[in-house]
Amino acid sequence: MSVYDRSRATYEDFVQVIARLRGPGGCPWDRAQTHHTLRQYMIEEACEAAEAMDGDDSMKIADELGDVLLQVVLNSAIGAEHRDFTDRDVTSMATHKMISRHEHVFGRASASDAQAVTSVWENAKKKERGEQTALERVLDVPATLPALMRGEKIIKREWDAKGGKLGREAALERLAAAGAAMGDEGAGEKQLGDLLMACCALAHAMDLDAEITLRSAIRAEIGHLRAECGKKYDHT
Fold first, then answer.
1. In this structure, are residues 64 and 73 in contact, taking their beta carbons and an 8 Å threshold?
2. Is 175 a residue whose pLDDT tops 80?
């Protein structure tokens, strides 16, 4: 039975389907794609997968992860066609990275809890990168990340490069100063931006994820609005 007839498919089956779509007589749209044209879809599919992970629908998560895998396999096919890289390069690089960054599992390092694992992971990444200045670390943060996530990563990398961590009190002082500036006459985009970065700094100081925290707050706001609209509906 061929892949086109089976109800369940393997990774190899999926690669075969993509190869057919990209091959002669395949799909004109798929054949026209490049790494550049697929960039926006990678971002969209990753965001949709992350959204599904916030829910409790397991098959929805599986479906969205499949869309992310599609982007990986399709880009790998394009790489192979140009003799740049193949899916085996992708899996090999990911495998070697996981091994090198988990020295507490595959090497001699030890880590008894999640916090210790983070230290091992960061040390491994430092070895891979070599010595970098705070600016070099910051410039490595992808510009395509959601702004709040990027802001927090920039603060984290800056302080990691300096060999320390922003304290909670210092972060609160920065937040208070940024908040006070919002009251100045003529305060606008710059001042609001400073306030948002101060929030990212506080999230880092408190070991919280600014992006996830805001997403939770947004869901709560929508929940309040839904409840409010429901009450209004009840009165009509």
1. no
2. yes
